[in-house]
Design goal:
Structural class: alpha+beta
Distance between the termini: 25 Å
Helix content: 10-25%
Mean pLDDT: 81
Shape: globular
Number of helices: 3
Oligomer: single chain
Radius of gyration: 15 Å
Number of strands: 7
Largest sheet: 7 strands, antiparallel
Low-confidence stretches: 1-12
Strand content: 35-45%
């Protein structure tokens, strides 16, 4: 599965090499852990499906959720988000950090919908109580076979 990253980071040649590595790695990972912070400062994590709808678009990521969930309540109190991906086949670990905002308008969610999500939400972006979590990426850090790199945006 290819991710659209044509305009994600355009800083220098070395950064682009790292981004191409990350793009390839993420295309092979089906799930990530999304971590939020609640009103007491407690970190809460849960698995989230990584698919075509959760691709990159100008430093942004998109996930879908029901409104009445802990993650949505956490985001309303503190928009800081951390996503963690792991590919054990090549010992690659990726952390993506950003700020989240919630979108509840079906017309804004529709461009990011993927048919695979129909399994959970048969009415698609018109499902009652659904929302989209829009994450604006601040930085990425990855570790791969003893090497690490942080990309600040």
């Amino acid at each position: 599965m290819a991710l659209a990253m044509s305009s994600f980071f355009k800083y220098n040649e070395q950064t682009m090499i790292h981004i191409k590595d990350i793009e390839k790695a993420l295309s092979d990972i089906n799930c990530c852990m999304m971590s939020t912070i609640d009103e007491n400062g407690q970190i809460n994590s849960r698995p989230m499906l990584h698919n075509k709808a959760i691709g990159y678009n100008d430093r942004n990521l998109y996930f879908f959720s029901m409104k009445d969930t802990r993650k949505v309540r956490d985001i309303k109190k503190n928009p800081t988000i951390s996503l963690t991906y792991q590919n054990t086949e090549n010992t690659l670990f990726i952390q993506i950090h950003g700020k989240a905002k919630l979108c509840e308008k079906p017309e804004e969610m529709a461009p990011y919908w993927d048919k695979k999500l129909d399994l959970w939400w048969s009415q698609r972006e018109n499902t009652p109580q659904i929302c989209m979590i829009h994450i604006h990426v601040s930085w990425i850090r990855y570790w791969n076979q003893g090497k690490d790199c942080t990309i600040e945006l």
